[in-house]
Automatic annotation (TrEMBL):
One of its GO terms (biological process) is regulation of mitochondrial ATP synthesis coupled proton transport. Gene3D superfamilies: Vaccinia Virus protein VP39. SUPFAM superfamilies: S-adenosyl-L-methionine-dependent methyltransferases. This is Uncharacterized protein. It comes from the Eukaryota. Keywords: Methyltransferase, S-adenosyl-L-methionine, Transferase.
Length: 112
């Protein structure tokens, strides 16, 4: 029998103490379906590579991705820069989502 850590290493990447298990296309599409017809602000808690943030932004949402992994945060920010997405539309923050104030957030999604 394999340990939980061995399973994580096979199914995702471990860059820090928290494993990176990217959302599947199906999971992302399910969230997009839930957002249809809505407007506002979306927070992705544990945003990883930013795939949900970019998908929601393309639907008109203003988004913030909260991520504690510096490598994934740099990747997401670089991706936003290369795509020319304004900081007013997408923002990635290095912060533990357990310590975030959600006062201005209307729709929140946790995929991980």
């Amino acid at each position: 029998m394999t340990s939980g850590k061995a399973k994580l290493k096979r199914s995702g990447m471990i860059f820090s103490q928290v494993p990176f298990l990217p959302s599947t296309k199906e999971q992302t599409l399910n969230v997009i379906k839930l957002l249809e017809g809505r407007k506002g602000y979306l927070a992705d808690l544990g945003s990883g590579d930013g795939r949900l943030v970019f998908a929601a932004s393309s639907m008109g949402f203003r988004c913030t991705g909260f991520e504690i992994n510096s490598i994934l945060l740099a990747y997401s920010r670089s991706k936003a820069w290369w795509r020319g997405v304004p900081h007013t539309d997408i923002h990635f923050v290095k912060q533990d989502f357990w310590k975030v104030s959600f006062i201005r957030i209307c729709i929140s999604s946790i995929l991980h």
